[in-house]
Amino acid sequence: MEMVETTRTQTSPEQIFAPEMIELKSRLATHADVFKIMELYQAIYGGAYRDPLMNDFSVMKKFLENKNNFWFLGEVDGEVIASVVVRYDPENLLAKAFGAVVTENYRRHGLMEQHLSYAIAYVQTNTAGVDALYATTRTVHEGAQALTERLGFKKLGIFPNSHKNVDYETHCLASVFSKDTLSKRVSDYKLHERLKGLLDIVAIELPTLKNFETIVPDAPSRTLVSPPELEMIESEHFVKYRYEKLKRDQALQFAFFPFHEPNVMVLSPDQTIEIFCFHSRQDGYSVILGGKVSNEINFTDLFNAIANLLREHQARYVETIVRADKPKIIDSILKARFIPSAFFPAFQLHNGKRYDYVIMSKTFEVFDFQNIKLKGLNQKYLEEYYRQWKQTSLNPKLLDV
Fold first, then answer.
1. Mean pLDDT of the chain
2. Are 214 and 196 in contact (CB under 8 A)?
3. Is the pLDDT of residue 19 over 90?
């Protein structure tokens, strides 16, 4: 997902408008707008936008039929010139904004800020409530980062080279929180020591996260075994059916990853291990969403095996999330060479309390940061990520080179 594209190109005199002369009308999209939306994204991206939601009629139609999805269009003189999409999770009182665009002739006039403000207010007013609304912003320009900053979004982390359209794209995570959200956090836990550098940056934006006690987790108290040989199933409808069935039966040990649906699964022959993932062949972006696994399995070996299977199926980048108060699980995934990318406080709502999560990622590509422009703390997040990568991936003799 990405916030508004803000490419600065030459603008002819007749394209320059005084902001007060532009009257933007924001509204919800309907089925009658489907082809207008497709034309808008085609005009802006020239067919390079990878998400089928913006270019597949059936996917778009299904999206609009879901009452927890909101598609906002911005019009000037009856012409659709802006769009932003919001998904809503009523169970966790979360929302995610993405796909925000504005046509080139109407950029640099504050219209996307106005349009996104309308979308946020609409979702807050017309749902059961929003404790946190988040977005990831592209980093090819600073404009998207500045936009979310002006709207009160707090910077929470960075995902280096997480997507690939024409070039590799690094995205930044930011969220705006309601007034009481952070007061609902479960905070009486000890943080894995490898997360301290990341949390020190988050605490600049959110001072209530200062002074976490950190620990080095104890070694496992029992002997763990490597998983048996695993295989991947790419059957989207079966995978979704199986995931929902296990969820209903409360058979999943971990199943919180909002706004993602699995389309592949990794499993052992006896199905004692069933791990659900989202995998995009278009740009190699993959996510480990959740699943079930027996208690004696070594999580380091398991996550290594899953990541390698995804890589064999053209994954370039793999992401997962872990509750921050589970330092032993975090330790196992760190040992599988996943790197802490972002920290999302008060992410999950459970029994009236909200739980912090750490987002961890693993890339199989050589880093490419030639085209990124980072604003403020996002530069610090990239430096911390790179420091962690060196610690994880380099021979100790090379750390000072």
1. 89
2. yes
3. no
Is 389:171 a contact under the CB 8 Å cutoff?
Answer: no
Bridge-based pairing of strands 94-102 and 231-233 is unpaired
How many CA atoms does the CB half-sphere of 110 hold within 13 Å?
A: 10
- What pLDDT score does 2 carry? 40
CA distance 97 to 145: 14
Q: Average pLDDT, stretch 11-27?
A: 61
pLDDT of residue 220: 84
- Residues 37 and 28: their CA atoms lie apart, in Å, by 12
Average pLDDT over every residue of 381-400: 82
For the segment 218-241, the average pLDDT, to the nearest whole number, is: 93
Antiparallel, parallel or unpaired: β 191-192 and 214-215: parallel
Tens-digit pLDDT profile for residues 50-102: 788 988 889 999 999 999 999 999 999 999 999 999 999 999 999 999 999 99
- Cα–chain center distance at 384: 18
DSSP string, 102-162: E-GGG-SSSHHHHHHHHHHHHHHHSSS--SEEEEEEE-SSSHHHHHHHHTTPEEEEEEEEE
Dihedral sign computed on CA atoms, order 350, 354, 356, 359: positive
d(CA 30, CA 55): 16
Predicted local distance difference test score (pLDDT) of residue 182:
96
CA distance 190 to 199: 12
Helices (runs of H) and strands (runs of E) counted in the chain? 9, 16
CA–CA separation, 126 and 179 (whole Å): 18
CB 54 within 8 A of CB 42: no
Please check whether residue 159 is in contact with residue 176, taking contact to mean a CB–CB distance below 8 angstroms. no
Stronger pLDDT, 63 or 142, i.e. the higher one: 63
Mean pLDDT of 21-48: 90
Fill in the DSSP letter of residue 18.
-
Distance CA 318, CA 145 (A): 24
Structure tokens at 126: 């017309």
d(CA 147, CA 142): 9
DSSP state of 33: G
Question: Which domains are assigned to the chain?
Answer: 13-183 (3.40.630.30), 214-365 (3.40.630.30)
